[in-house]
Structures are given as C-alpha cells and as structure tokens.
C-alpha cells in the first residue's frame, strides 16, 4: 500500500469529521503495533502539506519499567524528526499481578487511556490520535451488540472535558488489510505485543465471526461501516453520507 493511498484515506477521514484545526498539537499514542505506527507516520506526512498547520509528537506507554522493546520506535521517530516520549508505567503489574483480572482488557485499556491523555496534556498537546481502523470500529460495534445488547461504538472524534483533550481516530477509512500492507511496504518497526491475553479475547472472537461471514458476504465490513454512519450512531454522521 503506497503512502499516497493511505494519505488520501486519512485526509478524507480528517476532513469529514473536522479532526484538525490550525495550531493543533497532536500526540499519537504509539504501542509499537502496525496500527499506531501507521497513524503516526501518516499524520506526520500529512502535517507537511495540510492547509491547517499542525504538529505531531509520539507517546508510548511502557507497560513496565523496561523501555528497551521500544528502541526501534525511538529510532524511527529520530529518523523522521518526530518528538518521542516514553512513559514508564506499572500497568502490567496492576492488571495481572495485583488485580489478577480474568478479563483484563477493559481495565488495561482504561489505565492506558488515562496515562496517555495525562501525558499528552502535560506535554502541551490538545489532541490525541489513536490507531483504530475500520475493522476495529466494526468489531467494537458488533461486540457492543453481542455482549452488551446495545448499539454503540467509540466515536471518530471525542472531547474529554475532564482533561481537556480531544481524541481522534484518523484511520477509520482504512481497512486492516491496508494497514498491514502499508506497514510491510514502509518497513515499520513493529514491536511484539507482550500482553498475555493477546489472541484470546472477545475482540478476537468477533474478528473470527466476521471473517467466517465474509466467506459468503465479502463486502460485509463495508456494509456494516456504512450502516454505522447512516444510522447514524452519535458522532458518526458526516455531511457526505
């Protein structure tokens, strides 16, 4: 996947949902996975020519005091001249040792979100960008329906009044397969996910369910995503729909 193709999708998403204004300082939450690295490099590239000037920095939350696994990300940021900040945390210890959560994803996500937003605020950023792509949105929509019995999903743009940070998801027009192809083509330094729960979550079950249905309904994801915009879910409607 070429940079130009990804930038076209990202820019359209940014403009449809009015994500960026002149003077924004955007912190990209970088886990080291393909999604967050793609969000980082595409937003950085967009900042070079977007008519509304904005700046980008990267923030990674180390799940423990050991930050060495993130060294390849630091090298990428240095090469691209992107300010990079690594925040050591004890999230892994709290979730898996202290709380010993059987379903750790929710607590872990909440702790990571809080730490990321606070770090961004302390660095003078007014916005945080996350790497959620189109597949993530559809999976989250179905997870809410299947496991909670409600129609819900995260929003493309979310203002958090408690911390004064706006959360952006600029990859929502990009399919996961596009992100994988882009990360491979750009040789992004993907960091292995150390989470013990990785691959055995409700999200993985939902992903497998969608994949099974797509054998007979190949455009299922596109239809579901379009339905989310046309309902519309709160915060999902755009003028172009």
Structural notes for this entry:
By secondary structure, the chain is α/β, with parallel strands linked by helices. The chain has one domain (3-230): Rossmann fold (3-Layer(aba) Sandwich). It is 46% helix and 12% strand. The chain has nine helices and six strands, in the order αβαβαβααβαββααα. The protein has helices at residues 3-16, 34-46, 71-80, 91-98, 105-122, 134-148, 176-185, 202-213, 220-230, and strands at 25-29, 55-62, 84-88, 127-129, 157-160, 165-168. Strands 3-2-1-4-6-5 form a six-stranded mixed β-sheet, with helices on both faces. Strand 2 (55-62), helix 3 (71-80) and strand 3 (84-88) form a beta-alpha-beta unit. Helix 2 packs across helix 7 (176-185), helix 6 (134-148) packs across helix 8 and helix 6 (134-148) packs across helix 9 (220-230). The radius of gyration is 18 Å and the shape is globular. The protein starts with a helix and ends in an 11-residue tail after the last helix. The model has no long low-confidence stretch (mean pLDDT 89).
């Amino acid at each position: 996947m070429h940079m130009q193709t990804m930038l076209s999708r990202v820019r359209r998403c940014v403009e449809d949902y009015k994500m960026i204004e002149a003077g924004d300082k955007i912190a990209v939450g970088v886990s080291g996975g393909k999604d967050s690295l793609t969000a980082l490099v595409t937003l950085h590239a967009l900042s070079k020519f977007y008519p509304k000037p904005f700046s980008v920095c990267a923030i990674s939350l180390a799940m423990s005091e050991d930050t060495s696994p993130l060294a390849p990300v630091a090298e990428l940021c240095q090469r691209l001249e992107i300010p990079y900040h690594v925040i050591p945390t004890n999230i892994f210890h709290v979730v898996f040792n202290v709380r010993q959560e059987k379903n750790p994803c929710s607590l872990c996500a909440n702790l990571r979100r809080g730490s990321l937003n606070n770090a961004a605020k302390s660095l003078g950023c007014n916005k945080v960008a996350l790497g959620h792509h189109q597949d993530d949105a559809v999976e989250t929509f179905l997870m809410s329906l299947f496991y909670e019995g409600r129609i819900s999903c995260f929003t493309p743009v979310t203002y958090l009044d408690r911390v004064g940070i706006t959360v952006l998801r600029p990859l929502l027009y990009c399919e996961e397969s596009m992100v994988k192809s882009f990360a491979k083509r750009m040789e992004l330094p993907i960091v292995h996910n150390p989470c013990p729960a990785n691959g055995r979550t409700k999200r993985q079950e939902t992903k497998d369910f969608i994949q099974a249905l797509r054998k007979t309904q190949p455009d299922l994801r596109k239809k579901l995503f379009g339905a989310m915009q046309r309902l519309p879910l709160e915060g999902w409607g755009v003028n172009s729909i």
